[in-house]
Amino acid sequence: MLPILSDIGIAAQQVYQVGSAKVFLDVFMTNGPSSETSHDEEEVDDDHNIALARLSSPANSLDPDTDGDEHTETFPEVEFEATSSDNNSNKAFGGRLAVALLPSIEIGTSYYQGAYDENSQLDIKANGVDINFISTHLMVRGEYIRTKTEAFIEQDHEEVVNSLSRNGLFLQGTFFIGHHYQWDW
Question: pTM for this structure?
Answer without folding.
Answer: 0.68
